[in-house]
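Order emerges. As here.
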Amino acid sequence: MSIDDITKKPDDRPDLPVAAIETDYGPSVMAADEPTFARTLAMIGGAFVIFGGMALGFNLAGAGARVSTGWAVFALTLGLCFLLFHAAFDRDVQLRRLYMVFGFAVVVLGLILCVVPYPEKMGDQFRWASPCLVVGLLFLISFLRNEDDPAIRNYSQLFLGGVGAVLAVAGLLGGFLRVDYFLPMGLLLGVLGLLYVTAFVASRGVGDDIGFYAALGLCGLGALVVLIALGRSIFPAEGYRFFVSQGFLFLLTGLLAIALGGGLSLDWPLFVLTRRELNSFFLSPIAYLTLLGFAVVSWVQYFIFISKLYESGGPRPRSAPMVEPIVISYFFDLFPVFAIVFLPSVLTMRLLSEEQRSGTMEVLLTAPVDETVIVFSKFLAGLISFLVVWLPFGLYLMTIPLAGGTPFDYRPLLSFFITLVATGAGFISMGLFFSSITKNQIASGVLTLAGMLVLTMVYFAVQITQDDTVKKVLTHMSFLHLWLETLEGKILFQYLLFFPSFTVLMLFSTIKILESRKWR
């Protein structure tokens, strides 16, 4: 092309061949990677659900399936875990809407089973209603994680909030009116209601007015429950001790509601950073894999526990009957101890190591928050995750009275929960400390695992040592001895002193490490 061609008028220019015209293409649209692994798990999970559901149905109908009820429940649980993983990480619109319909249907079925008066009175089908409510909540949370349609998302969130409000009021306030209703139905309904409302607030965010006032409503409901529980405990009815029988459980549930509402609504730096850590954990595959692992471990332990109960009290008992508290045989065994050795490493190895590796630690240290807030937010998020992971153990244990079995003494579980919080705080603080001294997550996890092995070996060192003074010191350091004592219903505060002190030491050391790096 010459200069004359450029200066010619458009009408005088000769037609250029098509090949000479350069087509300007815009940037290509990047197609999202298909979640092949999640879809593979979904296919396997669907097969497990069909197999386990059919086997369970045949056993309940008396048809005598070759697969026992225990294996059927295990297959059904494993399949649901695989489907949940797929629901959380597959953004395909058709699949997520399918999970939405399934979640709504399961929740509605659970609500119907709560109120249907069959075979005798209302609540007789609660043993099936409670699993439906839990499974439906999990699938709706996974669906909301990927839903981008504003209208559908809004209606689904309002459904969660409405169901949560009904369950919380019916469970907690209804429990004050009837003592026999509170345990276990009222308590479980109240806790499920709190979880539903928490999921509603977390999905909408406290920046939304409805979400913010729902969080404040949680605080108000918790304060009301605490006041009523304390009032009825201080001024009990004649011949009735309210605090010992159920007042303490009401008090704990009310405090839980206050903690959830305050943690969601307050914009203090500590709570904001804690919510950030919890979001990063529960929106990652590690959370689902950890919950799946603990669900499998707890099922194996539950199967062993039920076998022991059958051997001691079945039609052909092969051992002496188990005496209360029977929960010792459930929690104090090989599988729970084996799982607890690895759990702190999984939960804490990335808390500070990942921040250092990715370079976001410098952003945190230059933000208008001090090192104490950063460390405590990481610690609280890790401790909450630690307690949540233990939920499968409690859910399996609750199936004994819900399935019509003989009620057991639940009070040792209260003392064990206090111990679990105290020892878990020590484990998480130790893992957080090791996570602060290295940028490598694997190195942090190995150091935490080594620390857990040392704390576990203390129990065996107590058995072989001959010196009484050394034995007494080691007993105070052994979390297994503390578990054993509290599972018998005894809380020895002198044994509780070591782990809170250990927690303070580890957190203080972690804060000092961050301070030294800030001024380096």
Notes: Residues 167-267 form one domain. Residues 314-319 have pLDDT under 50 and may be disordered.
